[in-house]
Design a protein that fits this description.
Blueprint lengths: L6 H31 L6 H21 L7 H33 L9 H21 L3 E4 L2 E4 L4 H65 L3 H14 L2 H4 L3 H23 L1
Antiparallel strand pairs: 1-2
Helix pairs in contact: 1-2, 2-3, 3-4, 3-5, 4-5, 6-8
């Protein structure tokens, strides 16, 4: 049984590739347009997203060409698609590295690494694109033009120059985001614990203030106010039955006089 695709299968795959690439192109172009139009988005964190979207936009654009057949357009699609597609998932590793350096390692020097990021992404993509061309590796590869898989050597070249960087980026991003997520989860738990302890402290302070008010708040002024209210509310015949109340009032007046005398002498 031959492993070659039939003409109908190639046309079906090419149509699916064109439709998916068109959607990807629209989304990436929207991000690029927002970055160009709005100056407030031109920060370092969004610059990485801009370059990722730019790479993905050109990758999708050349995939929209579908199956150009053979000749110049086939080689143009193979080279450019390989270069910008490798660059697109390498830019994702720079975003993951920036998050890890900022959140986990608490570094603030990520903006100084912009030139290194460009050298890493574009340089690696260029090398991965040139290597297959040494052995005439580009050409018809199923429903589009890419690194040919007609022999074991070209399959190895395709794995080394495309799938190895792709899976390396996936593993690196997964491990990095796991550490970032763990750090954020621990920080959230610590913040929640501190908030609970603060609420418990505030409740204890409120209860202590209440007890202090009960224990020490009934000073002479408060007692005198209470006695005046009682004099107004309680009838005369009822107060006659409360000799302790009269004694309490006399003590209140006496304590006020003593405190006033002491303050004058000082």
């Amino acid at each position: 049984m031959s492993g070659e695709l039939t003409q109908g299968e190639k046309e079906t795959l090419a149509a699916i590739n064109v439709g998916a690439s068109a959607l990807s192109f629209a989304g990436s172009a929207f991000i690029v347009l927002c970055y160009v139009l709005f100056r407030e988005l031109r920060k370092f964190s969004f610059k990485l997203i801009f370059y990722l979207a730019l790479s993905d936009m050109f990758c999708s654009l050349f995939n929209i060409l579908g199956d150009p057949g053979k000749g110049f357009f086939c080689y143009a699609q193979g080279y450019t698609t390989h270069f910008v597609c490798v660059a697109s998932f390498l830019w994702t590793t720079t975003i993951a590295f920036t998050l890890h350096r900022t959140v986990v390692r608490h570094k603030t020097d990520v903006e100084e690494l912009g030139a290194i990021f460009h050298l890493y992404v574009w340089g690696t993509s260029l090398v991965m694109t040139i290597i297959p061309s040494i052995g005439d590796g580009y050409g018809q590869a199923g429903a589009w033009c890419l690194v040919k898989t007609t022999s074991r050597a070209t399959k190895v070249l395709q794995f080394i120059t495309f799938y190895a960087p792709l899976w390396g980026a996936i593993l690196f991003n997964g491990f990095t985001y796991f550490q970032v997520n763990r750090m954020l989860t621990n920080a959230t738990r610590m913040a929640a614990g501190m908030s609970d302890r603060q609420q418990q402290t505030d409740s204890r302070v409120d209860m202590k203030g209440l007890f202090n008010s009960i224990a020490y708040g009934l000073n002479a002024s408060v007692r005198r106010t209470l006695q005046q209210k009682i004099d107004l509310w309680w009838p005369e015949w009822f107060r006659k039955w409360l000799p302790g109340f009269i004694m309490l009032r006399d003590q209140a007046h006496e304590s006020e006089m003593i405190s006033l005398k002491v303050s004058v002498e000082q």
